[in-house]
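=== RUN LOG ===
request id: a7f3
mode: sequence -> structure
chains: 1
length: 697
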Amino acid sequence: MIGDVTLPGLRDATPESLIAREWLATDGLGGYASGTVLGPPTRKHHGLFVPNLAQPNGRHVLLSTMSEVLVIGSDRRDLVGRRTPEGLLDCQSNGVLDRFCLEAGMPVWEYVVGGLCLRRRLTLPHGQNQLCIGYEVEGTMPEGADAPKLLLRPFFTMRRHDEEPDHAAAQRCIASAVLNRDRPELDVRLRDAELALRLAVHGARAGLRLDPCQRRHLYSVERDRGYIPEETHYSPGEFEIVLRPGLQFALFVTLGPHVDLEIDPGELFAMERRRVEGLLQRAGAVTDPLVARLVVAADQFIVRPGNRPEEQLRAQATGERVRTIIAGYHWFGDWGRDTMISLEGLTMCTGRLSEAEATLVTFAGYVKDGLLPNLFPEGARTALYHTVDATLWYFHALDRYCEWAGHHRLPAQLMPVLESICAHYVRGTRYGIGVDPSDGLVRAGEQGYQLTWMDAKAGDWVVTPRRGKPVEIQALWYNALKLMAHWRDVLGLDPRDYAERAERTREAFEARFWDPALGRLKDVVDGEHGDDDSGRPNQIFSLSLRHPVLAEAHWADVLRWVREWLLTPYGLRTLDPRHPDYKRNYHGDLLTRDGAYHQGTVWPWLIGHYVDAAIRVGGPQVDDAADPLAAFPDHLKAFGVGSIAEIFDAEPPFEARGCIAQAWSVAEVLRARLRWLGARGDQATGSPASTSTSRCR
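=== RESULT ===
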C-alpha cells in the first residue's frame, strides 16, 4: 500500500544499525508502543504497551518488553533480547530478521530460521487501551525433531514513562493466573492502585507457567544522554505455544479484568488497514510516496487526550469534540505552540477539517489572561502558560482553517476570545507580555522564563532568553492584527482599530529590525543588553506568513541570507555558523544538549516557512530551484522509521536527534511538499478532496 515503509534485506545488517532504528505505533488517545527494529529497548520510554491513563494520570510503561524465544530442537533464539548492564547485546534475532516494515502504520517483523518463517505484527486498536501482537507461521517444519515452540515471557515496569528507571517493578506488581473459558490468562496488577492488565493468547492452545524472574536492562540511549541507564524488568511467567505451518494466533493485552477475544485478530489488523486507507482517501488522490507516508505519520499526533476524560464529558454536553496534538514521541505531550504550527499540515492538508475545527475550539477553551497554554505537563490536568507566541500562532492556524473551509463561521464563533486576546496583549498580561505604547511592538520577558519557541532551559539557565522584542513575535502580531481587521470587516464589524495598529507595527518594524549593513533582520530589539543582531531563522516569518510585516524590497535579501547561512538538507540552522556561540552537534548530557538546542541545531519544521518564503520571492522561477525536501524520503528509513525527527546536527552528516517523531516536523514537511509540488505545477501528487494543492501554503 502506498504509504508503507519497508526495510528489506536485514539479515546482513549489523546489530547496531538495527538497534539505532526505532518504530512507533499509537492508539489515538496519546498512548503508544515503541522500540527498536532489532528488539532490545534503548530508552526508558520504550514499551509495548504505554497507554495514556486518567488514573494514575499520564502515560505509563506497563508492558515494557517481551522475551520471544523460538525453540527449534536444541536451537533457542530470543528474538527480542536485551542489552546487558555490561553493554553486551543478548539478542539472537540478527541474521534471522529478514524484513521489517510499516504496513498501514503497523510494525511487522519477518524472521526466517531454516525453512520456517515467523511473522509478527503489532497494532494498538484506535481509540482503545488495548494491544494486539499477531503471529503467523509459514514454511516447513524441521524433520526428526519436536515441533517448534514459541515462548512468550512478558516483562513489566509499571511506571510513568517519564519517571527514572528503577529496580522496583517486582515490588509494584501483583500477578496471578486465571482460567477463563478453558483459556489461561495472566492478570498483573499495580499494587496500591486500581490498575490491572490481562494477557491472553487467541487462536492457539497456549500453556501458561507462573515462574517469576527479573532481568536487568541497559538503556544505551539514556546512558549516552546522561540519564540513569539501568532498569530491572519483572516477569511473572511465560506462555508456550506449539507452532505448525499455517498457524495464526495473537497475544492480547488489555486494561481491566477481562480480555475481549470475540474479534478475530486478523479482522482487527484488517480494520486498522481499512482505517489507514480511509485516511489516504480523505487526503485526496495521493500518488507521491513522501506525501502518502507523511499522511499516515500525521495520524499519530492527532489524539483525543485519554488522560483528561472530564474534558470529553464537557464537550459532549455541548455537542463538541475534544482534540489535541501530541507534540512529539516519546516525551512531549500536547503543547499550544506546536499544535497551532502543526495544525494545517496534520489536519487540513490531510482532509481532516473537522478535527482541525475541534482542536481550535478545544484550545479556545483553555485561553487564560489572553494566553494560550504552552503545555500540559505529564501527569497533570492543568496547563502552564509561559509563552508569548503560542497565542499568536493560534490566529495563523485559524486563518488557515478559514481558507481550507471556505467560510468564516469559526472566527464569528470565537470573536469574543480573539478580541480578549488582543486586548490583553495591548494592555499587558503575564510574563511581561504586552504592546509597548511607544512603538506598537510586542515586548515579552520575565526572569527565569523562556517565552519564545527557542525555549531551552537547564536548571535556572535560560539558554536563549530573547527578552525584549523578538523578530518573529512582531511578524506574528502584525499578522494577527491584519487577520482581525479582515475578519471583522467580513463579519460586518468595525476593523479600523486593528488596521491602524497593524500599520503602526509595520512602520516600527521596518525602522527597528532592518539592518542595511547586515543585509538582514536583527533577532531581538530592546533586549536586556540592547539589540541582538544574531543571525537566526526567526526572521523568515517576516515574509512567510499570510501578511508579511517585512517590506517587499527586503524579501530577497533576507531569503538569500537564510539560504546561504542557515539552509541544510533537513531544515534551517538556528544560528549563523560564524557566531561564537554556534554548536555543530547536539549530543552529551542535558546541559550540553540544551546549550546546543537553538544554537545551531537544525529544526525541520522551519523548512515549511522557508518554502513559503521561497515561493513568495521566487514565483515562476521555483521550478528551476533544487528541491529543498529531497533528503527526507531516505530519512524515513532511519532513526524513527516512517516519521521525521525533532532535530538534526548542524553539520554533515546531519545526524537525527531528539524525538524520533515530531508533530511539526511531519506537518511542515508534508505541507511544504504539497506546496512545492503545487508551485512546480505537479498536481498528480494529490490533495485534500475539498481543495486544491495550491491552497496548502
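=== NOTES ===
The chain has a mean pLDDT of 92.
DSSP finds 18 helices and 37 strands in the chain.
=== END ===
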